[in-house]
Amino acid sequence: MNILDFLSPGRARAIDGFHPVASSPLEQRLRDAGATFEERDGWLVATSVPHEAEHAAACGVADLSHLGKLEVRGAVDQPPGATIWYPITPERILCLCPPWTVHPMIDALSDQARLVLDQTGQLGVIALVGPEARTVLRRVSALDELPASGLVAHVAAHVLERQGTILVVFGQEVGHYLWEAIVDAAEPFGGGPVGVDLLGDAGRIE
Amino acid sequence: MTFLMPCPNCGPRPVEEFGCNGEIRVRPRAKPTRRELSDYVYMRDNVAGPHREWWHHRHGCQTWFVVERDTRTHEVLAVHARGAR
Amino acid sequence: MRLGAQPGELLDRSTRISFQYDGETVEAFAGDTIASALFAHGRRVFGRSFKYHRPRGLLCCSGHCPNCMMVVDGVPNVRTCVEPVRDGAVVKGQNFRGSLDRDLLQITDWIGGPFTPPGFYYKTFIRPRRLWPVYEKLLRGLAGLGPLPEGLSSDPADYADDRYDVEHRTVETLVIGGGRSGLEAAIAAAAGGGRVAVVDEAPRAGGSLLLSRATMGEADALVARARAAGVDVLAPARAIGLYEGNLVPVVQGRTMLRYRAGAVVVASGTMDQPLVFPGNDLVGVMFASAVRRLVNWWSLRPGTRAVVLTADDQGHEAAGELAAAGVTVARVVDLRERPTAQFRAKGHRGRVYAVEIAGEQVDCDLVVMSGSPQPAYALLAQAGATIEYDERRGVLVPTSLPDGVQAVGAAAGEVGEPAVPAATCGSGGDKSFVCFCEDQGAKDLKLAIGEGFDSIELSKRYTTVTMGPCQGKLCHLNSIRVYAKETSASEISVGTTTARPPWAPVTLGMLAGRGHTPAKRTSIHHRHRAAGAEVIWTGQWRRPLHYGDPAGEVAAVHQGVGLIDVSTLGKILVGGPDAVEFLERIYPNRYADLKVGRVRYGVLTNDNGRIFDDGTVVRLADAAFYVTTTSTGAAHVLHWFEWWNEIWQLDVEIADVTAANAAVNVAGPRSRELMERLVDAEADVSNEGFKYLDARLMRVAGVPCLAIRIGFVGELGYELHFPSPHGPHVWDELLAKGADLGIRPFGLEPQRVLRLEKGHVIIGQDTDAESTLPEASMSWLLKYEKEDFVGRWAAELVQERGEKARLVGFEMVGDVLPLEGAQIVEGGRSVGRITSVRRSAAVGKVIGLCWVPAAAAREGVEFDVKVGDGVERGVVRLKPFYDPTGGRLRA
């Protein structure tokens, strides 16, 4: 094993014929919402949620915590396949990519970067979609121009935007709380939880 | 306090996103006398006026930087990012 | 009372609404406020004053004065003059015994005067002293205004649907006040591009243009023009403060809009001011603007015969509109023509029936007063504007503004050339009120000045003028004038009192918002819940205290194997060419000689020499270290590392991986057996291949782990760090594969017992902000052979001056369990304290850690511990209570 493999959920291997399945920090919240789960790329993913179409007509709130996330240190150019490349500072970059591309990406970047850290387990991702997504974000955060890093519902987060979908990226340990706060903010508009399939391409970030 | 702090990386942002580490004190280079040590660890100038202090964009980009701030008005007179990482 | 349909009225006569007032049904139209409907229904008394319980009627009709506050659907202190009617609402009066019309407490008005001067609590009710509790109970019962509804629940869940929201908005320009000046400023700002919003506290934007039927159309046209220019016009939406950085909280319904604006334009217009004359609070005395709203907005006839007393044009405009509405205007007194006019109002049962003007009595049932048009400067003053008295026009005006804030229109001081009314226009007869909220008259202010409260700020605190519900809107200017007159000073030298937010009352619910509490949970949290754990807060973390049987959990660790979730530990990667140098400087002990694959305990101190955190450091590679911290200190240590490196500028990468990894401690004599069942075939977990204080990379249940052999709980154990998304999987596998080994999950309480048996310290529990390494019995961590490290000089100083106290283990002689924090006493004096104490089944004693005087820190020294009213004996023990040689740890 590489010395930093113990940070990478993608480095788990099958044992006794069973592959360990990774859980999102928001799994219990989606179970509470009645979500249907499916195993994808080693993750248990909430694919659909009851009433998701009605929710999405206002503001759909989805769990994309299974996306690959890397922190790249150094002045590095965006490589192909790094779907979201957000320089938090000029030399500290947050990269989001499909889960199966995490390790090829680490390998590709390690020559140029001072450090490439797999943050897939460290960070959770909540996506907001629908006509009221921006208003719901304003109900929990003063962040205006995106992407930006700052407070969302009183906890530190990065807020990104891609093709009209807002992505809130946060330390996974506050995931339950943040999900509760964001779903609660969406409620007066008729918004609520949705599964990843409803997001279509926006949810796959390929 | 609701003033905006100009983060050298993110631009002006609400002050609640930041941490302040207080007045800048220079650490003695060699073993200090008791008086010098006590001055360094305990004494602060606590000026009413321009004041150099450490700030940190704690809930944002995490950058540490030095701010010159007027303690009477919260006017930020200058910002210096050292590492710029 | 209600006139026929009028052009421009706010009423929708096709929609009828009814509500309950005091058991009666009141009919209203859509567009009415509760007060306008009650007025139409014939009600004239709307409230009872604070101290004297005088009847009070409508005065401002704009939500500023205290007169019309009632209880609406259980909510007290609702200003009914701006509260829209709604079907089925239940409205009641407040602050009376009996009824609004016959209040028994009005006795304080008739006989209470001499007993209720300013500061009467401390004057009238001070003797005899022993009766104060009785007085206090009585006074508390009488004080305050509206009552809280009965049967309120203390459980927030009962109000979950009663929501208030916060919404953040960013604009280039925010205009406060939607009158002509405000709307024009907004249109101009929008022409320059960028987002522009206008907020107005009135039911609709238009400001004073709406007061007259002639200009209502102009208001609507301006609003339409602004909207067409892209301006967001919000009404009713009230800005309640103007804070640093142009943060403006705006209350709109049940949402607090937190505006951040590049520029704020204050166009808040003017505040009507009362004239100070005897009887100026009688029912039937109203502001000119109030009368105009009643006539033009709600088509009401405010009286039958009116007298107008005015300092500006507004009184004349009101007089014309009253005449058109069929009111006889008996007299108009223009103070610009008769600046020294003296008058007093006469009342019967609290209602005005005549005004005496220079000795001549004019009968009337309505007195229209228009004092000075005072610019509404409060928000400007909050922002730091200078406010000064303008002697020529007799009002307070802003004279300099902070950057990013502008004032336009009347708020900026454009109020024409009004008369400057005398501080008091008349004498004798009834009380002349300066402050309607707190029932303070001109006489009370004179008394306060006579008693030495001769500065306006002192007087404010003594008399409470400007401190009532209107917060000075109606009384500030007049109190300054009375002060100037009584102290023979100029108004300019009297100065002003400080304007503070909020500009208008705001509910606590609005300030609280949604009230979610940020909480951190580990990725295994729901497994603990399912296992019946009692979950507690430790810092922001939610953690299991135990799983129902703390003693059984301790026993499982000693006899079989136990499992605790320690994912909350802070975790930091330190890597790069200067990583060793960095750790050598930041820790008191050495890391240069730490071998790859080994772990070492470390304590962090600041340059004061004080301990603030501890943890372990694993050397992953020559230039890569994995540092753990305490659970609650994680963020602080990360910032501490980053801050020092900002100073040192070493070539080192510091990365927080606290949430990236879950961590569990597998501990107990059978933990190796369990590990053998779960690790990959190539992993060696034998005592030879994986020694105490070794760290190894291996797969556990298929998941990549950093396994660290350490023993906080005193038994053979492995701390496993692995990707947090696999937390539930690894946890489940450990429990399943360990079932026949007697495995049990254990919580914080059993962990605390186990570590005390070993004498292990918890930073923050057994140490505080005064604890140094020598005194905490950790001198062995100080490696003075290093050139320097943070905290070195202070530690040296402590050792030079001698230790004052020491942290040591102890056991109780008897079986009594003292409280944590119990004092260690000597000759009746406190000389130390217990920081941790538990009853240990394994040791068979009550054991703990305590601070004792340094001289007493010797094996076997006995001391007294305060328990209840008496003392119990304790004995210092310097060795671990359990497994003192560490044989079990190394087994």
Tell me about this structure.
The complex is a heterotrimer of chains A (206), B (85) and C (891). Chain A has 6 helices and 12 strands. With 206 residues, chain A is α+β, with helices and mostly antiparallel strands. The mean pLDDT of chain A is 95. In chain B, 24% of the residues are buried. The mean pLDDT of chain B is 92. With 891 residues, chain C is an alpha+beta fold. Chain C contains 23 helices and 46 strands. In chain C, strands 8, 9, 10, 11, 12, 13 and 25 form a 7-stranded mixed β-sheet that branches. Chain C has a 6-stranded mixed β-sheet with strand order 37-38-39-36-30-40. At the A-C interface, strand 7, helix 4 and helix 5 of A face strand 8, strand 35, strand 37, strand 38 and strand 39 of C.
Uncertain parts of chain C: none
Number of strands of chain C: 46
Beta-strand residue fraction of chain A:
25-35%
Number of helices of chain A: 6
- Look at the structure and give the mean pLDDT of chain C: 94
Morphology call of chain C: elongated
Distance between the termini of chain C: 97 Å
Helix content of chain C: 10-25%
Strand line-up of the largest beta sheet of chain A: 9-10-11-8-3-12
Global shape of chain A: globular
Rg value of chain A: 17 Å
Name the helicity range of chain A: 10-25%
Strand content of chain C: 25-35%
- The quaternary state of the protein chains shown equals heterotrimer
User: Any idea what the radius of gyration of chain C is?
Assistant: 37 Å
Q: Count of helices of chain C? A: 23
Which structural class fits the helix and strand makeup of chain C?
Answer: alpha+beta
Task: Write the topology of this structure.
The complex is a heterotrimer of chains A (206), B (85) and C (891).
Chain A: H1 27-32, E1 36-40, E2 43-48, H2 52-58, E3 60-63, E4 68-73, E5 84-89, E6 92-97, H3 102-109, E7 115-118, E8 123-129, H4 133-140, E9 148-152, E10 155-162, E11 165-171, H5 175-186, E12 192-193, H6 201-204
Parallel strand pairs in A: 3-12
Antiparallel strand pairs in A: 1-2, 3-8, 4-6, 4-7, 5-6, 8-11, 9-10, 10-11
Helix pairs in contact in A: 4-5
Chain B: E1 4-7, E2 11-14, E3 19-23, H1 34-42, E4 50-56, E5 64-70, E6 76-80
Antiparallel strand pairs in B: 1-2, 3-4, 4-5, 5-6
Chain C: E1 12-21, E2 24-30, H1 34-40, E3 47-48, E4 55-56, E5 69-72, E6 75-79, E7 90-92, H2 107-110, H3 120-123, H4 132-142, E8 165-176, H5 180-191, E9 196-199, H6 213-228, E10 232-234, E11 238-239, E12 247-252, E13 255-266, E14 270-271, E15 285-287, H7 288-296, E16 305-310, H8 313-324, E17 328-334, E18 343-348, E19 351-357, E20 360-363, E21 366-370, E22 374-375, H9 378-383, E23 386-390, E24 395-400, E25 405-407, E26 433-435, E27 440-441, H10 442-450, H11 456-463, H12 476-486, H13 491-494, H14 508-512, H15 525-530, E28 534-538, E29 541-546, H16 550-559, E30 562-565, E31 570-575, H17 579-586, E32 599-605, E33 611-621, E34 624-629, H18 634-648, E35 653-656, E36 661-667, H19 671-678, E37 695-700, E38 703-708, E39 717-723, H20 727-737, E40 744-745, H21 748-757, H22 792-801, E41 805-812, E42 823-826, E43 829-840, E44 845-853, E45 862-867, E46 870-877, H23 887-890
Parallel strand pairs in C: 1-7, 8-9, 8-13, 9-10, 13-25, 15-21, 16-17, 16-21, 30-40
Antiparallel strand pairs in C: 1-2, 3-4, 5-6, 5-7, 11-12, 12-13, 14-22, 18-19, 19-20, 23-24, 26-27, 28-29, 30-36, 31-34, 31-35, 32-33, 33-34, 36-39, 37-38, 38-39, 41-44, 41-46, 42-43, 42-45, 43-44, 45-46
Helix pairs in contact in C: 5-6, 7-8, 10-12, 16-21
